[in-house]
Structures are given as C-alpha cells and as structure tokens.
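Email to the structure team, subject: 50S ribosomal protein L17 model.

Hi all, the expression group asked for a predicted structure before they design truncation constructs. Nothing fancy, just the tokens so they can compare against earlier work. One-line instruction: predict 50S ribosomal protein L17, return tokens.
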Amino acid sequence: MRHYKKGRKLGTDASHTKAMKKSLVAALFTNDRIKTIEMRAKEIRPDVDRIITWAKRGDLHSRRLAIRALGDKELVREVFEKVAQGQFADRNGGYTRIMKLGYRKGDNAPMVIMELVTEPVAKKKAEKSSKAASGAKKTAPKKAAQKTEDAKESKAAAATDEAKEEQSAVEEDKAVSEKATTKGASSKAKATKKTDAKESAAEKAVDGAAEGAAEQAALDADDAKVEKAAKEEKVDADKAAKEDAGE
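Reply from the structure team: attached below.
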C-alpha cells in the first residue's frame, strides 16, 4: 500500500530519482527547454517553481537552498541574476509550459517539451471591465452633468451649422441660377452669330453664282458675235471669188 508515499513511479530507486530530477531541472534552467517524458516533466515542475520563488526572494538563505537543489553555484548565480532583472516579475506562478509531442517509438512513452515561460503576462479583460465599472460608478454624476452640457452645446452647434448650411445652399442656388442665365445668354449669342454667318455665306454664294452666270452669258454673246462676223467674211470671200471666175 502507498501510504504517505507521494510522487510518481518513475521506475527508479530514490537516489536515482533524486539525481535524475536534479539533472533535468539544471538542464531546463541552462537551455530554457528540455525534451522528456510527460511523467518526469510533471514531476520536476514543483522543483522549478520553488527555485524561481527562491530567486525572487534573493536573500542568502534562498541562494543556499537553490545551490543545494541544483548543485551548481554558477547556474544558481545566472538564475538569480535573470530573476533580479525582472524575468518573472509579473508572474506569481506557472513558470513552465508543457507541450505534448506524441508517443515515442518502442516503449510508447508520451513525449513532451517543457520550457520556461518568459513572455509577459497578458492583462485580463475582467480586471479592466471591473475597474471601468467602478470608475463609472464614481464618475456617474459628473458625467451626467457633463453630458447635459455637451448635449446643449451640441444642439446649439447643430442649429448654427444648419443655419450656415441653409445660407450656403441659398447662395449656391443663386450662383447656379446666375451661371445658367449667363450660359443661356452666351449660347443664344453664339447661335445668332452662327445663323448670321450661315446667312451671309448663303448670300455670298448666291451673289457669286449670279455674277458667274452673267459673265458666262457675256462670254457666250461675244463668241456668237465673233462666229457671225467670221461667217459674213467667208460669204463675202466666196462672192468675190465667183465674180472673179465669171470675168
């Protein structure tokens, strides 16, 4: 029966178990992580937490206890220096992390990686919400009065903004109407100019056509006169030739 026999069965005697635990703890503090079986990792976790607690105390007695647990003065000095620099300052426990890797081939032992948790602790949201609630209770009356004042100021500002917006809208409408009238007048002027130009061009074309027709008619009349004179000269020449032949 296991009366008053704490701990896990590691398959070794007492002296072997003690030496194995000391070597595993020393390896963890040296390398910040080790790979071992799950039972051994869980067995050395209290020893690691105890040594870090002694390092947080930092007195001579705690240093001697750590040297007795680890058996290495230089390693104890390094651990105490790291803790003094604030490595675990924001943690009150839970200095190690165990991550499972699966089962080992051969004896099917569950393998894990055990490492020191060095990252800072994330603040809990519950603490923030409780602090915010307590602060809200204390500042509720002040906030209510401030809210009423802010509401009044916001209403006044909104009224002034609306008046300014209405005035600006009216001015914009006036400007748009003026622009529209000016654009309409300019477009009408352009249209009249275009029609006048077209009419003048048509008149010029008609005048040019009439002048061309008159010139062509005059040329045709001159040609007719020349042909008539040539015919008369030919007739006279024929008559003269006949008379000469009769004589």
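Strands lie at 33-37, 96-103, 110-116. The CA atoms of residues 67 and 73 lie 6 Å apart. Ping us if the truncation boundaries need rechecking.
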